[in-house]
Design brief:
It is a single chain. Helix content is about 40%, strand content about 20%. It is of the alpha/beta class and about 500 residues long. The protein folds into two domains: about 180 residues, Leucine Aminopeptidase, subunit E, domain 1; about 300 residues, Aminopeptidase (3-Layer(aba) Sandwich). The strands form four sheets. Strands 7, 8, 9, 10, 11, 14, 15, 16 and 18 form a nine-stranded mixed beta sheet that branches. A six-stranded mixed beta sheet has the order 1-6-5-2-4-3, sandwiched between helices. A three-stranded mixed beta sheet has the order 12-13-17. Strand 12 and strand 13 form a beta hairpin. Helix 3 packs across helix 5, helix 4 crosses helix 5 and helix 11 packs across helix 17. The two termini are about 25 Å apart.
């Protein structure tokens, strides 16, 4: 756990991080620090070795016993800066220092950012970006020297009055809770599938939620799932030796008469494709097929710890999709919890099947609204790349709010279409619907047809987020390490506020 503090002047540190804008130079506070260190910062700026371009860095050795190094890092042009870019700069600075085995850092807070966003908002973003950058999933490394250095302290410094200091500290407190949810979601996703089974996922939720007030967890077993008529979840799990689980987390932060917001997350702990087996190169990273579940689990955890005055439900249909003699097959017809029948055309389109039962169960709460998150389609990645996730909803207010809050926390959603042509493509001649379909061709518009499939199981205001940007590749980014990135947790928390 990193310890944070806010002060006027830095104390004893491994490194003081100084973010600077391109074409702007130093403000009065940095000029005073520069003078104290013998002009080392101005010397670098005069040399043009550092010009403040985004993520450009320059490490300066000061020969000072209190602060031995100063890291200059570029913010880019001030007019181009937004929350996403600022958090990336913060994270990149933290990781740069961490990779050099530094564990006590200082960070200069630009006064213009506080004026633009508020001290609380800046404090929250600083702690979230720092914690997300510092996280590393390296517990299976046996070489201690190969493990990432654990940060001990980060001190935020600048010219702060009492109100600004208090606002920053309040933001830091909230940011620690938010980032704990993000990193919890990442940790669940990064855990290898030999460990991360449906049963293990359920046990981790129970263990981590046990001490959080007003947050109750119930886990349904196979017999209880069968009794509820969740034929889709049962079918997807049939090929695995691991039984399915249906995880229910309820947070009652307001009068129970108030309708809850329900979050539903796809919890496929490993996806081989089932009998419609994935090609080998596409089976790698399929431990990440439960990141929708991880995100809703992380989000309700944060909401409860922030003591939001809301009622929130998280539902996770969890299963492993494996091939075997007992696995479900193409041409099977399944019955979902709400009674709809589904023709299976491809067993690798299993995520929408388990969500069908999850969305059907959500109706029991007579919800105010339902948001589902899922690593659902490669088509969404083909459409948007890996920096944005797709947002599907017939509700204009939900679209506007989700789009706004995602930008405000530095995550990116892009609205994708729903409509009659997508719904028509999912109709079947021998069942109510089928689990695969395209518009004008079997591979056309399939992110939207998948969303249209889910819409069949909704009778409430609903939005679907297809997590195209849920993971970073083998090298990660300068501000976050490879693997699960926790996308969606911050957006959901801000939406729920």
């Amino acid at each position: 756990m990193i310890t944070y503090s806010v002060s006027q002047m830095p104390s004893k540190l491994n490194c003081l991080i100084v973010p600077l804008f391109e074409e702007k130079g130093m403000d009065s506070y940095i000029k005073s620090l520069d003078k104290e260190f013998g002009g080392v910062i101005s010397d670098v700026l005069k040399s043009k070795d550092f010009e403040g371009k985004k993520l450009q860095t320059s490490l300066i050795y000061t020969k000072d016993k209190g602060i031995s190094r100063i890291l200059l890092i570029g913010l880019g042009k001030e007019k181009d800066l937004n929350v996403k870019k600022y958090k990336e700069v913060v994270g990149a600075a933290v990781m740069t220092c961490q990779n050099k085995k530094m564990d006590k850092l200082g960070f200069f807070v630009q006064p213009g950012l506080i004026k633009k966003y508020s001290a609380k908002k800046v404090g929250l973003d600083l702690s979230v970006a720092s914690e997300v950058a510092a996280y590393a999933y390296d517990e299976h490394k046996t070489d201690k020297d190969a493990k990432v250095t654990k940060l001990k302290n980060i001190e935020f410094v600048g010219e702060f009055n009492v109100a600004t200091k208090r606002g920053l500290e309040k933001g830091l407190e909230e940011g620690i809770l938010v980032s704990s949810g993000v990193n919890f979601a990442r940790h669940l996703g990064n855990t290898p599938p030999t460990i991360m089974t449906p049963e293990y996922l359920a046990s981790e939720v129970q263990k981590n939620f046990k001490s959080i007030p007003k947050l109750n967890v119930k886990v349904l077993n196979k017999q209880e799932i069968t009794k509820l008529g969740m034929g889709c979840l049962l079918a997807v799990a049939r090929g695995s030796e691991h039984e399915p689980k249906f995880i229910i987390a309820e947070y009652w932060g307001a009068d129970r008469k108030r309708k809850p917001t329900v979050l539903v997350g796809k919890g496929i702990t490993f996806d081989s494709g089932g009998l419609s087996l994935k090609p080998g190169q596409f089976m790698t990273d399929m431990k990440f097929d439960m990141l929708g579940a991880a995100s809703v689990i992380g989000a309700i955890k944060v909401a409860a710890e922030l003591k939001l005055k809301k009622n929130i439900i998280a539902l996770v249909p969890a299963a492993e999709n494996m091939p075997s003699g007992t696995a479900f097959r193409p041409d099977d017809i399944l019955k979902a919890m709400n009674g709809k029948t589904i023709l299976v055309e491809n067993t690798d389109a299993e995520g929408r099947l388990v969500l069908a039962d999850g969305l059907s169960y959500a109706s029991k709460y007579k919800p105010k609204e339902v948001i589902d998150l899922a690593t659902l389609t490669g088509a969404c990645m083909a459409a948007l790349g890996l920096e944005r996730s797709g947002l599907f909803t017939p509700e204009e207010k939900m679209n506007e709010k989700l789009s706004y809050v995602s930008n405000s926390v530095g995550e990116q959603l892009w609205r994708m279409p729903l409509g009659e042509e997508y719904s028509e493509a999912m109709k079947s001649e021998i069942a109510d619907i089928k689990n695969m379909g395209g518009v004008g061709g079997e591979r056309y518009g399939t992110a939207s047809t998948a969303a249209a499939f889910l819409q069949v199981f909704t009778d409430y205001p609903w939005a679907h987020i297809d997590l195209a940007s849920a993971i970073y590749g083998s090298k990660g980014k300068p501000w976050i390490r490879a693997g699960a990135n926790g996308f969606g947790v911050q957006t959901l928390v801000e939406y729920l506020r």
